[in-house]
């Protein structure tokens, strides 16, 4: 049998193409490809080369549309014993070719060509082509004979034109030789025989029978030459004669051959015709051909030669014809019949060719599995021959079956782009569906057969001496079918991988991965010190509106832009290391050594760092792979590159995703990660990774250590934070802000220090001093605190997230220094440095309670009262200016006329294990305008009290002296219930608003002047926040402290009938006994309404007895002292004069009192009474007067 047979084979002229001399392989393929282009020569093109020596036997030669068909056989072929039966099997021409630069000796070429031609006795034309000759070879060429033809050096097109001319000449020569052959075949002396003819001596009857058959065979041979000459009509006429003669002589074998020739002549004559009648005719004739081949079977020759091969060839020819017409059913039946007949073939080569042709035809029909089955039969026949070349053939044939059995090598995907696209698309939308290729890839019923195919490929590769193919087969077998392989078999495959790798050069790569299984685990986010922020160059606060998102551009917290969470973007920076977490799994029963594994990046802008891993049997491990982006652009990470078992392979993440998807659908034998004990991992997609230019990188640390900053409540401490630029780009923009809780604890931030350090060059450092003040904890029960201290518990209260955080947004240049800006180029992003201030606040001094203490010292009657000061803003307001700083604490109350001193007593407890020293300071006013203390700016000094020591587990009381002052006016707005400045209606007057605001400002002003500081040891100091405690202590007595009495009483001496001014202090005045002393009482109205009252004056001695009335009176008076009716205008004073005559020297006390009969709501509220009819009694403070003299 012959391969690649068809009905048209009978009209093809076989030409042996022989390389002569030394021809390099690439040049050999090039020359042979030029010959293949001339497989068909039109008859019209050879008319100029054709010479008719006598009348041509081809009477119906189609010179207009006919052609000669060549079949080039590279290297030639041995002569066939069936050449007389089928003339197309003969080598009718021999063309040799030599490459002159490689074969300079033309004599040797000619001799070698002559020797080669002796093997082809049937050759009618013999020529040798010499390509690329030199000049000397061209000169000697004419002496070498007519069989040598030169092709001078020229371009490819010129050489092809020259070769076309030579092939037309050869075609014309063959046509003329065919005419001679036809004439010779008609002569009586021609003997035509086949191996089927008996070799024994012929009897007379058989001789007569043979003579009759010779005529039929001669006509059949003439018909063959007519077909080769391109004249189907003449061929059909001779075939018809041969059929009639063969039928008469019962020569069924030659009858079948002649009938086969008629089909070829019919097909050539009606080339391109497609109708059912023609197809039925071909099918009918070939059915007769096959039946007559069967009739020619001779049992005596069955062991030696059999016409079965021709019967099967005819079957294959009909099947190929019907396959071209698309008649699938009939083709399958014919191929099945031919496959059954293969068992009866004697020659193994015939059986091999038959299986090859059946596999090719099934493949043409699209029956891949049937084609793969017969290809495996071909491989088995190759493997039966124990030599390396047949093993190579078997390996190549089995490689073609891998696609049908779904065990193909990944390297074959490039030859099948459709399959590659299927594999790539299988990862898309894997949560909802999976591609059909994934289903077919893991069909469980094929597992055993797939293992057998891979094992056959492995064995053939080992026998063929191809270590790379053996490694690939073992890798596919181990990776895909490890659950079906015993531990011993797994170890054997591991040994096969190792042995194959030893025969490969170092650094060999293979497209098929083995172990381990690799899947993407996660992309670790950037640390908070390296957050990337989008940059808006149009705004000064370029970071505003860009929420940091770790490594990803999209976060659920970002606003203003609709983002697709399934397409995340990851930003990497040139020159900064990045990390990717992957998980490895070894589901086999042996220790796996991974020599190196690193990220596989094909974009060329990423340097990956390899690591080595050891995986115990049936184990998994999550490892970190790192690398550095080198240039700006996009980065794609399809998988990892692994050096294991001595070969470098690429493991794609999508392959493992498809594998896990098949496991979830029940299509895969086993999940390699689950069987290794790894938990189920959600599908992690590879984001779109873009690399941006180098950015600055600030690294922060606290000078003195990055540990927790331990502070006591209220402690103030300076912390130095060092910022260093660890990047390669200077910092040109920077801004500091606060975030988190307790932001008030950061007292000062050095904005100017950071701004003055810009630009911060690479390697430069700046130190920022930050002042911290520890916040206060919530109120703590003293009993609970005491129990904690008794049990030895440390009062540390540190909550997660309670410390403030410094946010430093910084950025480098707006353009990349290495690449000039282009139109539409993006601005490099900025960064955000998060500096958490790890503050641990310990409970410090514990506040227990606070109360208000007061002391009143009577004033002395002098020459004058404290001078009233009229203010420009409000003429009715008065204040007292003192000459001494101490008068700020102890001085005359202008609204009571007495010396006043008030204390705020604070009780503090020390529950800590350290000693505290408490110091109290009060701000004093130096200006005479006392009411200006309500303003923001004032010139004040500070008075410090002696320090108080509080030991551990002890309490102490601290006295805070309060400045004695009151508001100048008693207004009804001060008594409004639930008064709120922001809730005052439009009906409220501005005076009421101002009065209430003045009261609130006075309270705040009083509290703000008091500072309670503490110190513990040398370096620990702070300030207690006592505002709430002081305000709570003043809340119950705010009226007594700040609000004046309705009436103010005062006494003064009168000289020469008018008050005399004196620079002497008020207590320096004195009165002589036995003299008449003029005095006057001054009554001031502190309200905005007229007050009518009845005034009375009393004088008492040191024993408190009344000195004016009674039998023992020691003081005489002139004027009215009781029942004095007075009417005092609003915010004004009224005076009442009188005189006293002291009889006995000593110390006396004057007291003025008044009864207000017409009361109003203000007076009743100030007097804390609700009765409308009850009068209000106002008593002034006592005034001391010293009387000197003798009794």
Automatic annotation (TrEMBL):
Trs120/TRAPPC9 third Ig-like domain ranges (all copies): 883-1042
Protein name: Trafficking protein particle complex subunit 11 domain-containing protein
Superkingdom of the source species: Eukaryota
Keyword Cytoplasm attached: no
Domain Trs120/TRAPPC9 N-terminal span(s) in chain numbering: 9-196, 202-272
Subcellular location per the Swiss-Prot or TrEMBL entry: Golgi apparatus
Residue ranges occupied by any Trs120/TRAPPC9 fourth Ig-like domain in the UniProt entry: 1067-1187
Domain Trs120/TRAPPC9 first Ig-like: 547-646
Keyword set, alphabetical order: Golgi apparatus
PANTHER family: TRAFFICKING PROTEIN PARTICLE COMPLEX SUBUNIT 9
Residue span(s) of domain Trs120/TRAPPC9 TPR region: 330-499
Keyword Cell membrane: no
Source organism per UniProt: Hevea brasiliensis (Para rubber tree)
């Amino acid at each position: 049998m012959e391969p690649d047979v068809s009905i048209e084979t009978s009209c093809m002229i076989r030409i042996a193409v022989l390389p002569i001399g030394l021809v390099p392989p690439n040049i050999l393929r090039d020359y042979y490809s030029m010959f293949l282009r001339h497989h068909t020569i039109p008859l019209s093109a050879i008319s100029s080369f054709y010479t008719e020596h006598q009348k041509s036997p081809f009477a119906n030669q189609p010179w207009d549309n006919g052609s000669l068909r060549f079949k080039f056989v590279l290297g030639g072929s041995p002569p066939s014993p069936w050449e007389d039966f089928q003339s197309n099997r003969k080598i009718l021409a021999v063309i040799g070719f030599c490459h002159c630069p490689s074969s300079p000796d033309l004599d040797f070429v000619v001799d070698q060509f002559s020797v080669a031609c002796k093997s082809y006795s049937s050759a009618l034309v013999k020529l040798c082509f010499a390509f690329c000759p030199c000049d000397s070879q061209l000169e000697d060429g004419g002496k070498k004979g007519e069989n040598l033809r030169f092709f001078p050096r020229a371009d490819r097109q010129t050489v092809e034109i020259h070769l076309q001319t030579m092939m037309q000449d050869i075609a014309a020569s063959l046509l003329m030789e065919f005419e001679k052959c036809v004439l010779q075949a008609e002569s009586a002396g021609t003997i035509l025989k086949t191996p089927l003819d008996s070799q024994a001596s012929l009897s007379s009857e058989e001789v007569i029978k043979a003579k009759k058959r010779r005529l039929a065979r001669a006509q059949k041979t003439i018909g063959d030459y007519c077909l080769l000459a391109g004249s189907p009509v003449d061929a059909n006429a001779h075939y018809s004669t041969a059929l009639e003669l063969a039928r008469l002589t019962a020569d069924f074998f030659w009858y079948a051959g002649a009938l086969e020739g008629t089909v070829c002549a019919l097909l050539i004559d009606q080339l391109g015709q497609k109708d059912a009648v023609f197809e039925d005719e071909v099918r009918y004739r070939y059915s007769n051909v096959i039946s007559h081949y069967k009739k020619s079977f001779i049992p005596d020759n069955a062991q030696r030669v059999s016409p079965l091969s021709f019967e099967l060839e005819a079957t294959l020819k009909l099947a190929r014809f019907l396959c071209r017409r698309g008649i699938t059913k009939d083709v399958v039946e014919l191929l099945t019949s031919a496959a059954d007949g293969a068992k009866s073939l004697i020659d193994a080569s015939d059986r091999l060719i038959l299986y090859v042709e059946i596999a090719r035809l099934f493949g043409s029909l699209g029956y891949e599995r049937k084609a793969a089955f017969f290809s495996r039969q071909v491989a088995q026949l190759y493997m039966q021959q124990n030599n390396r070349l047949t093993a190579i053939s078997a390996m190549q044939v089995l490689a073609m079956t891998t696609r049908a059995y779904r065990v193909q090598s990944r390297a074959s995907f490039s030859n099948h782009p459709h399959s590659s696209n299927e594999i790539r698309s299988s990862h898309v939308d894997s949560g909802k569906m999976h591609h059909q290729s994934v289903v077919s890839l893991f069909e469980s019923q094929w597992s055993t057969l797939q293992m057998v195919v891979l094992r056959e490929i492995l064995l053939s590769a080992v026998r063929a001496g191809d270590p790379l193919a053996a490694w690939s087969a073992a890798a596919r077998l181990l990776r895909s079918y490890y659950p079906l392989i015993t531990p011993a078999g797994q170890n054997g495959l591991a040994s096969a991988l190792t042995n194959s790798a030893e025969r490969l050069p170092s650094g060999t790569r293979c497209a098929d991965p083995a172990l381990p299984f690799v899947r993407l685990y996660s992309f670790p986010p950037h640390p908070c010190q390296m957050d990337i922020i989008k940059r808006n160059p149009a705004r000064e606060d370029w970071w505003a509106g860009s929420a940091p998102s770790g490594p990803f551009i999209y976060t659920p917290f970002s606003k203003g832009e609709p983002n697709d969470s399934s397409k995340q973007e990851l930003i990497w920076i040139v020159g900064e290391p990045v990390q990717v977490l992957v998980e490895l799994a070894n589901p086999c029963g042996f220790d796996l050594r991974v020599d190196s594994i690193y990220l596989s990046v094909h974009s060329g802008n990423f340097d990956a760092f390899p690591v080595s891993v050891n995986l115990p049997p049936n184990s998994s491990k999550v490892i970190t792979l790192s690398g550095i982006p080198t240039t700006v652009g996009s980065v794609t990470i399809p998988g990892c590159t692994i050096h294991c078992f001595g070969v470098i392979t690429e493991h794609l993440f999508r392959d493992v995703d498809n594998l896990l998807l098949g496991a979830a659908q029940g299509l895969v034998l086993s999940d390699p990660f689950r069987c290794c004990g790894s938990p189920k991992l959600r599908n992690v997609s590879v984001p779109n990774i873009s690399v941006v230019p180098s950015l600055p990188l600030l690294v922060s640390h606290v000078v003195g250590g990055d540990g927790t900053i331990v502070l006591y409540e209220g402690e103030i401490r300076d912390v130095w934070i060092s910022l260093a630029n660890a990047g390669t780009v200077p910092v040109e923009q920077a801004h500091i802000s606060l975030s988190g809780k307790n932001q008030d604890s950061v007292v000062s931030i050095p904005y100017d220090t950071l701004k003055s350090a810009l630009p911060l060059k690479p390697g430069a450092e700046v130190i920022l001093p930050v002042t911290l003040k520890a916040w206060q904890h919530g109120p703590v029960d003293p009993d609970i605190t005491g129990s904690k201290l008794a049990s030895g518990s440390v009062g540390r209260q540190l909550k997660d997230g309670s410390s403030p955080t410094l946010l430093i947004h910084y950025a480098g240049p707006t353009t990349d220094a290495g690449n000039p800006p282009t139109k539409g180029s993006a601005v490099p992003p900025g960064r955000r440095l998060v500096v958490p201030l790890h503050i641990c606040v310990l409970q410090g001094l514990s506040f227990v309670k606070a109360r208000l203490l007061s002391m009143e010292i009577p004033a002395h009657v002098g020459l004058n009262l404290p001078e009233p000061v009229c203010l420009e803003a409000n003429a009715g307001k008065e204040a007292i200016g003192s000459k001494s700083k101490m008068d700020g604490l102890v001085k005359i109350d202008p609204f009571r006329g007495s010396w006043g001193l008030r204390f705020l007593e604070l009780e503090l407890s020390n529950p800590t294990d350290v000693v505290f020293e408490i110091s109290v300071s009060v701000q004093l006013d130096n200006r005479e305008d006392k009411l200006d203390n309500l303003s923001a700016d004032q010139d004040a000094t500070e008075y410090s009290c002696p320090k108080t020591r509080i030991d551990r587990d002890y309490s102490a009381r601290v006295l805070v002296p309060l400045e004695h002052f009151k508001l100048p006016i008693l207004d009804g707005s001060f008594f409004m219930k639930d008064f709120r400045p922001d809730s005052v209606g439009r009906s409220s007057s501005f005076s009421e608003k101002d009065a209430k605001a003045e009261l609130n400002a006075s309270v705040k002003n009083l509290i703000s002047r008091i500072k309670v500081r503490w110190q513990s040891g040398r370096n620990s100091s702070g300030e207690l926040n006592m505002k709430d405690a002081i305000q709570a202590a003043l809340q119950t007595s705010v009226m007594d402290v700040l609000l004046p009495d309705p009436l103010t009483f005062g006494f003064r001496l009168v000289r020469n009938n008018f008050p005399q001014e004196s620079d002497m202090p008020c207590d320096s005045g004195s009165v002589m006994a036995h003299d008449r002393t003029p005095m006057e009482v001054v009554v001031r109205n502190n309200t905005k309404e007229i007050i009518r009252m009845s005034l009375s004056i009393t004088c008492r001695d040191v024993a408190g007895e009344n000195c004016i009335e009674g039998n023992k009176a020691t003081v005489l008076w002139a004027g009215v002292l009781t029942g004095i009716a007075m009417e005092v205008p609003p915010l004004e004073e009224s005076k009442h004069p009188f005189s006293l005559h002291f009889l006995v020297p000593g110390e006396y006390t004057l007291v003025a009192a008044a009864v207000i009969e017409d009361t109003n709501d203000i007076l009743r509220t100030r007097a804390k009474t609700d009765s409308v009819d009850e009068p209000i009694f106002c008593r002034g403070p006592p005034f001391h007067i010293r009387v000197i003299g003798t009794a």
